[in-house]
Design a protein that fits this description.
228 residues; mainly alpha
Length: 228
């Protein structure tokens, strides 16, 4: 791996850990907002990554992805939520689930805005073409990683397969029979995701919305920078 690839991998790992921590905090804060303080009492509403890190999902899987020269992907320990404490469990549980992916979307947008500010500040230097030890190279890798990884986390977590957030959101709109089906496949959800990933089906599912989000945010950055 080149020095630039190593830098990109390290930045990507840090960005991933930060992003999944924000994701889990969003779940916990939203749950507390609607009546469930379980995450707060468990010490999980914190930006300190240590209580959130899952050794496999936060370290091993991202490192494998980095070595495979693909964007780091992973997860943190799920924030504990007790739906029984929510004021309106049927509705608010879906809001709690949606808060995680929405936090990733907001992080991606914030990264795009930060990239614009940096690009405008250094108007005559392209972050995409910066090389060597240029400080702009680091900021370019950082902003691009924030956009890309958070787009991946958002789209991936919206897949309606247990235990992902998307299945809790879908539960809100399903009839009782549909909820029973999702509940029945719940214990096998992780294995279903592994099979979909191994066969490449998962990549096919998320590739279109991922490309739409990522490239349109990148395009937005370029349009604004060129206009200023």
């Amino acid at each position: 791996m080149s020095a630039e690839e190593v830098l990109a991998g390290l930045v990507g790992l840090i960005v991933l850990i930060f992003s999944v921590v924000v994701h889990e905090n969003a779940h916990g804060i939203t749950a507390e907002r609607f009546g469930d303080p379980t995450a707060r009492y468990s010490g999980r509403i914190t930006l300190n990554p240590l209580p959130h890190i899952d050794p496999i999902g936060s370290i091993i899987v991202p490192l494998i992805a980095i070595l495979g020269k693909i964007p780091p992907i992973g997860w943190a320990r799920p924030v504990p939520v007790n739906p029984a404490n929510l004021r309106n469990p049927g509705v608010h549980n879906a809001y709690v689930a949606a808060a995680g992916p929405m936090s990733n979307l907001l992080l991606a947008i914030a990264a795009a805005l930060l990239w614009i500010l940096i690009r405008v500040f250094f108007k005559h230097v392209s972050l995409l073409e910066a090389t060597g030890g240029n400080t702009l190279l680091f900021f370019g890798i950082l902003c691009d990683s924030l956009i890309k990884i958070n787009c991946v986390l958002m789209v991936f977590n919206l897949i309606p397969i247990p235990p992902l957030d998307g299945h809790w959101i879908l539960m809100r709109f399903l009839p009782p029979s549909g909820k029973a089906v999702l509940a029945a496949i719940g214990p096998y959800g992780f294995f279903i995701l592994i099979i979909l990933l191994w066969t490449g089906v998962l990549g096919m599912i998320i590739s279109l919305p991922l490309r739409f989000l990522y490239y349109n945010l990148r395009l937005f950055v370029e349009i604004v920078v060129n206009a200023l």
